[in-house]
Design brief:
- The chain is of the alpha+beta class.
- The N terminus is likely disordered.
- The protein is built from 13 helices and 37 strands.
- The longest helix has 23 residues.
- The strands form 8 sheets. A 9-stranded mixed β-sheet has the order 26-22-20-19-23-24-25-18-28, sandwiched between helices.
- A hairpin with a 2-residue loop joins strand 14 and strand 15.
- Helix content is about 20%, strand content about 25%.
- The protein starts with a helix and ends in a 13-residue tail after the last helix.
- It folds into 4 domains: about 80 residues, no CATH class; about 180 residues, Endonuclease Chain A (Endonuclease, Chain A, 2-Layer Sandwich); about 160 residues, Lamin Tail domain (Immunoglobulin-like), CATH 2.60.40.1260; about 180 residues, Endonuclease Chain A (Endonuclease, Chain A).
Length: about 650
């Protein structure tokens, strides 16, 4: 089948006088005009959750096992218990056992209502890894001593069970995992899946309530729970201050540098990469004039740390700035809390919060009027929102965390990028738009909020007339099944919403040997649209035809009035393992630049004039040109495969693994 498609593509290319640049893959699908935007509905407290709790058995037990950290990096195996009732419970004489070793709560142990406690083997190590004190210890460190009954429990990495027993010996709760053969009271069916090294098993919840079916279903979650991760509240903010919405490449560098250059007190930024000379100089200059400049960066981006970044951060640090990196160091028993720190956010003077889709490099923030990536950014002036992001930054960059390393102690894996700035001029840029009209924003922080049914999934399901999605990468399937974001968008179309999905067409996102690339996603979506006659269309965009380096956005626009601006790619790792940051922005006026940008990108350029297929076949140049094209395509494919080296983009492109 691919051979037939390739042959048709070759004929289409040859029929065009401008060759490869005229071919736009993935445009098949029903065409329609978007419905007019209707009146704005009353603004909900975000979006109602629609999922079920996954089954319960009359609520949690008197005391419940909520977390188990058994495949530990160090010696801080831990168990978290919770009291879901409002009243306190006397835990004196209660026991935890793996049926080989047993520990008992000493007399006077008390668990207040609606609280949780941590029991760990080494309270000192636990605090170093989480900055959270453990209430009880059955080994070393500060904390109330558990009573050892027989040998000390040693949870097997591959499989075991944790049983909670009342003083009378009755089973209260159980957790069974991996290769355990436990078939006794308190557990039904096969064990819960084993978690990877350094990850926590966490009881799943829906609609704010924990599951309780006494089975593996209670512990089934797509999220990867790292040790020491944040658990930020999910909050909606009413914004009375100003906001600036701006696009890349249109005005991104100018708008961001103006914000940085106005800083008088502080600039705190969490970034995947930093390679823009202009932004680097603004940060250095701010540090030199006494501004408290602090940056936390990903210590192991795909391909390594760019030598340009290393030079820039050395200069920033030399001017008085603080630069830290999130790193793995297995030799020292450290695993980073997140697979990648892939966020792109900054807080200026504890008053302005900036969130966007673009890495701080020359393609995301090109010098005007150069071309670059398509991306969305927004700067919001609000002290309450800024305080929320300051707390996020504090947790991401806290020097007490063992995965945070100062620049003075960091030895990065450096590489020299072959990326160069665009030389093309970007025609007719869409200007940044400043608004003072009241609006609302809701931070969506991954991994803790990414799969909440009232966050991005709620936004996708809330659209009533139109839903527009522009993204760098969307996998149709994740490891455990279909992509929940994509399925939510398709579900919106099934409810009559006009849905348009525009995906990047850069070569590494449409390779023929990858079954979950953007071209495959477009085929999947348009196949559903045709079979079910839905108001749904997906396209692969040719960035060059729009004067762009690539479509690097991760944006959503619902009903023309609610936007999602974020760093979150629609793949499993981004939603379940990475540190990502986004904002749901409610307000027609503030999101207008994003609407204009999407409409421009969606509009396909008119096809160039050219001969028909019959005219091409009859040309005496057909066979020589076909042979030359095939040879060149084969050479180009081989070169790109060599360059790819196992990652989707080895420069500014974020990980899509």
């Amino acid at each position: 089948m691919r051979a037939v498609v390739a042959a048709v593509a070759i004929l289409a290319i040859l029929a065009s006088p401008i060759g490869l640049g005229a071919f736009l893959p993935g445009d098949a699908g029903p065409a329609y005009a978007p419905s007019p935007v209707g009146p704005a509905p009353p603004s909900p407290h975000l979006f109602p959750a629609t999922g079920s709790g996954g089954g319960t058995r009359g609520g949690l037990p008197l005391v419940a096992i909520l977390e188990v950290y058994y495949y530990a990096i160090r010696d801080d195996e831990a168990i978290v218990l919770a009291n879901p009732s409002p009243g306190a419970i006397d835990l004196s004489g209660w026991r935890l056992t793996d049926r080989e070793g047993t520990i008992e709560f000493p007399g006077g142990s008390n668990l207040p209502g609606r609280t949780r406690i941590v029991i760990t083997r080494n309270a000192t190590s636990y605090f170093e890894d989480t900055l959270t004190p453990a209430a009880y210890t059955y080994g070393a460190g500060n904390g109330t001593r558990m009573v050892l009954v027989g040998r000390i429990p040693q949870l097997n990495n591959d499989g075991d069970e944790v049983l909670l027993l009342s003083p009378s010996g009755d089973l209260v709760d159980a957790f069974v995992y991996g290769t355990s053969t436990y078939s006794g009271e308190g557990w039904v069916g096969p064990p819960a899946a084993k978690v990877p090294h350094g990850k926590r098993a966490v009881r799943a919840s829906s609609d704010g309530e924990y599951r309780d079916t006494d089975s593996a279903k209670d512990w089934d979650s797509p999220r990867s729970y790292g040790f020491g991760q944040s658990d930020l509240p999910f909050e909606r903010f009413e914004i009375a201050g100003a906001a600036v919405a701006f696009l890349s490449p249109d005005s991104s560098l100018t708008t961001l540098t103006e914000s940085l250059d106005r800083a008088t007190v502080s600039i705190h930024a969490g970034l995947y990469t930093l390679t823009s000379p202009g932004l680097g100089e603004s940060l250095r200059a701010a540090a030199a004039r006494g501004v408290d400049v602090r940056i936390v960066l990903e210590g192991g981006p795909v391909g390594g740390v760019d030598v340009r970044e290393w030079d820039l951060v050395q200069r920033i640090a030399g001017a008085g700035g603080t630069v830290r990196f999130l790193v793995d160091d297995f030799a020292e028993g450290t695993m980073a809390r997140y697979r990648f720190l892939h966020a792109k956010y900054a807080v200026i003077d504890s008053a302005v919060t900036i969130v966007g889709s673009e890495n701080w490099g020359e393609h995301g923030f090109p010098a005007t009027p150069r071309s670059g990536n398509r991306g969305w950014q927004i700067a919001v002036e609000d002290t309450a929102l800024a305080a929320y992001f300051e707390d996020l930054f504090r947790q991401d960059s806290d020097a007490r965390m063992r995965d945070i390393v100062p620049i003075s102690a960091f030895s990065p894996n450096l590489y020299e990028s072959n990326e160069t700035p665009e030389n093309r001029t970007y025609a007719s840029p869409i200007p940044a738009a400043r608004t003072t009209a009241p609006f609302h924003v809701t931070p969506v922080i991954a991994p803790e909020h990414a799969l909440r049914e009232d966050a991005l999934l709620g936004l996708l399901g809330s659209a009533s007339t139109t839903l527009d999605i522009e993204a760098f990468y969307v996998a149709s399937a994740w490891g455990f099944g279909r992509n929940p974001y994509l399925e939510a968008a398709i579900g919106a179309a099934r409810h009559g919403v006009h849905v348009r999905i525009l995906l990047d067409g850069t070569w590494y996102n449409v390779e023929g040997d990858d079954p979950v690339d953007n071209d495959d996603t477009v085929a999947y979506v348009n196949g559903i649209a045709r079979r079910e006659a839905l108001p749904l269309e997906a396209r692969v965009a040719d960035p060059n035809s729009h004067g762009l380096s690539k479509i690097h956005n991760k944006g959503v626009l619902a009903d023309g009035r609610i936007a999602f601006v974020s760093s979150l790619n629609w793949n499993r790792n981004a939603a379940t393992s990475n540190r990502e940051v986004g904002l749901i922005v409610e307000g027609s006026e503030v999101v207008e630049p994003f609407r204009l940008g999407f409409e421009r990108d969606w509009a396909s350029p008119a096809p160039p004039p050219g001969g028909t297929v019959g005219e091409v076949l009859g040309s005496p140049l057909f066979l020589p040109l076909l042979t030359l094209l095939v040879v060149n395509v084969a050479l180009l494919w081989a070169w790109r495969r060599q360059r790819r080296r196992g990652g989707k983009g080895l420069s500014e492109d974020e990980p899509t693994l």
